[in-house]
Amino acid sequence: MKLAVLGTGMIVQDALPVLAALGIQPHAILGTERSRERAQALAGRFGIPHCCFQYNDVLESGADTAYVALPNALHYDYAREALLHGLHVIVEKPATSSLAQLRELRRLAQERGLVLVEAVTLHHLPAFHALRQELGSLGKLRLACFQFNQYSSRYDAFLRGEIAPVFDPAQAGGALMDLNVYNIHCAAALFGRPEAVHYHAAIQRGVDTSGVLVLDYGELQVTCIAAKDCQGANVSTILGEAGRIACWPSVSQLDGYERILRSGGQERREGLLAEHRMSYEFAAFQRMIDGVCLDEASQLLDLSEIAAEILETAHGQIS
Fold first, then answer.
1. Residue 83 half-sphere exposure toward CB, CA atoms < 13 A
2. Closest by Cα among 136, 149, 150, 161 to 241
3. Those residues with Cβ within 8 angstroms of residue 291's Cβ, 6 or more apart along the chain or in another chain
4. 6 exposure class (CB count in 10 Å sphere: 0-12, 13-18, 19+)
5. FRET partner for 59 with CA separation of 20 to 30 A, picked from 198, 260, 269, 280?
6. By the 8 A CB rule, do 176 and 314 touch?
7. Model pTM score
8. Cβ atoms 139, 242 nearer than 8 A
9. How far apart are CA 179 and CA 124, in angstroms?
10. Residue 159 CB coordination number (10 Å)
């Protein structure tokens, strides 16, 4: 995988040491004139040979994969251009701002035999795989609650009227698109497509700074809680007639869980996040792209489509 990294923000700064530890040498990095010094510093620190400030230069650099780690509203355009140039694409969550955009990217990837995946850490974490195996022991599932509450480093500036992209409704910002997307992916992976979606949000300056999403699965009701304006313990629970599971911390970086059965059985597992949370997903992406594992990528995109449907419905309820 000859990776081109698009962006220089916090997620890229988290990802580059992970890539180095995995032995993945980025081939190019894209910055802007505003981020020129940062892009050059990152290129120097991580030995990235091509430091670019025009997207076409990245596309012509010889990279075979684009990692789209730009503000949410830019994901679709940059991912689409990469696919049209024959590059595999890893796109940060949320993959796109609408379901139609995601389906268009998926069509382009399928037509060209390219891997397209959404970077959602949850699906690749050991604790999540272990937890999924435990669900059957809980009997008929009745309730679940997933939480990701994190006081944003940009929230104080937002209150002063300084609007960063993560708080800009015009750029697909807000708690739903930024944090609750992880909870939604968790619900999609465990329970599939809900029958109904209801979003109740705290709105400031036209954007949801926190909110509670209710997913109706008939006999199972799921709440997805996310906040950028307050901090929480981020313990999530799944309750069944035969027992319950509690897992921690947020589903984006699950480290452990506890299962307690009504019959008296109890199991606690922790310390399952042995590596950085992003290590597992990039190891999987490298394997998928090097092996052109289109079926595996398609299975992940099925979950991305369910998540995109939920996001679109919920976002339409923000007023």
1. 25
2. 136
3. none
4. buried
5. 280
6. yes
7. 0.96
8. yes
9. 17
10. 13
User: pLDDT band for position 319 (50/70/90)?
Assistant: confident
Opening angle at CA 49, ends 48 and 51, nearest 5:
80
Both tokens assigned to 106? 């998926």
CA distance 134 to 93: 27
Give Cα 104 distance to the centre of its chain. 19
Is residue 310 scored above 90 in pLDDT?
Answer: yes
Q: Can you give the length of the chain in residues?
A: 319
Given the DSSP bridges, would you call strands 221-227 and 65-68 parallel, antiparallel or unpaired?
Answer: unpaired
The pLDDT, as a whole number, for residue 123 is 97
| CA-CA-CA-CA dihedral for 153, 91, 103, 105, to nearest 10 | 140
For the segment 18-30, what is each residue's pLDDT rounded down to a tens digit? 999 999 999 999 9
Strand intervals (E) in 128-265: 141-149, 196-204, 207-216, 221-227, 236-240, 243-248, 256-261
Going by C-alpha positions, the residue among 264, 253, 213, 281 that lies closest to residue 1 is 281
| Residue 248: other Cβ atoms inside 10 A | 19
How far apart, in whole angstroms, are the C-alpha atoms of residue 245 and residue 237? Answer: 6
Closest CA to 250 of 125, 148, 124, 120: 148
Burial 115-137 (b: 16+ CB within 10 A, else e): bbbbbbbbbbbebbebbeebbee
Q: In this structure, what DSSP letter does residue 310 have?
A: H
| Segment 80-98 mean pLDDT | 97
Tell which phi-psi region holds residue 303, choosing left (phi > 0), alpha (psi between -120 and 50) or beta.
Answer: alpha
* Torsional sign, CA 21, 22, 25, 26: negative
Q: pLDDT category, 84, cuts 50, 70, 90?
A: very high
